[in-house]
Amino acid sequence: MKSVLQIAAAISWLCMVVGVIGSDGIGNVRDTDDEISLLESQLVVTSPSQLLMVPLTLIQAAASKGAVCLDGTLPGYHLHPGSGSGANRWLIQLEGGGWCNTRRSCIFRKTTRRGSSNHMEKVLAFTGILSNKANENPDFFNWNRVKLRYCDGASFTGDSQDQSSQLYYRGQRIWQAAMEELLSKGMQKAEQALLSGCSAGGLASILHCDQFKELLPGTTKVKCLSDAGMFMDAVDVSGGHSLRKMFQGVVTTQNLQKELSTACTKHLDPTSCFFPQNLVSGIKTPMFLLNAAYDAWQVQESLAPPSVDLSGSWKACKSDHSHCNSSQIQFFQDFRTSMMDAVKSFATSTHNGVFINSCFAHCQSERQDTWYAPDSPTLHGKTVAESVGDWYFDRTTVKAIDCPYPCDKTCHNLIFK
């Protein structure tokens, strides 16, 4: 029986790891991260006492480098050391958590765990791709596994500040300081390494993939995984571009122009160069794109956000796809087609991998039920974990693209009520 997450009607959908700011630029953050975590915990067979809880480590050397969170506090990470055959293998998971796209929204973000280590959880459960159990994470369970916390609001990309508002846009410096610390803790001896991330962290994995490769010895096998990071420059239900407007705010507020791919900015505007569809084909390091074709976050906040669905005609549909009429389903199919077109060139490379299932889901690598479990989603008979493992270890090529909705009966769709 597939898992279904249900959320109270009073909660506006955001996503498992993303906070979106209201139309006034600060408003209330519509954030369902905690609610989803609670609901997921009710679905997990493993009792809380059996979960691997990993403590937060602050990067003490970061302060002198100006590598600080939005509020000036130290950045941090959670590390569970590898053992046995995994002692010299490293998996870095970049945390997601949306973006702040105005000065006011970044000021608000300073009061949350997504802008200040003062508010971060002191311990985190490692599940899915971070699990230390072979029966939950068959290929990476004994690796050195790291979750790098996200507190800059621009997918680890900025390098500026707003002195008048005491805002530090230092995502790029945080990335560099964290990598330096992990290299000193043994990553410089890595035989194999995988840079991963989910949602805004999945975008960060794309943005930093080649940089990650350059940090490590030439003999190290390096690959990257982006989970739910394929944010599309899509047309919304009003004919506008809601996500482009949001990303333009991020790029402008944090002055990201100089930090983005120069190969991209030579021929496209900076905002376009924050969209993965304009970046993935230019990445030299082998990469795996894991995404739901009807990404639940993009359905909610890019395709049919409340700001453009003034009549509320999409509210029922985006809460539960079974309530969509035929024209609404066709709109989603057109979105899927645009995603397929965007990855077509990327997928032709023999080094790259693809797993795009026709589900209304978001992050699938961090959740145990969608990563590797008896009823996990599958494509071509393989779970997400098996597919990523096959690709990383070159056991077989993985170009798994699902048929259009509603053919896939293995999905763990997100349903909101």
Automatic annotation (TrEMBL):
Its EC number is 3.1.1.-. Keywords: Cell wall, Cell wall biogenesis/degradation, Hydrolase, Secreted, Signal. GO terms for cellular component: plant-type cell wall. Belongs to the pectinacetylesterase family. This is Pectin acetylesterase. GO terms for biological process: cell wall organization. It comes from Arabidopsis suecica (Swedish thale-cress). The lineage of its organism: Eukaryota, Viridiplantae, Streptophyta, Embryophyta, Tracheophyta. Pfam families: PAE. The keyword Signal applies.
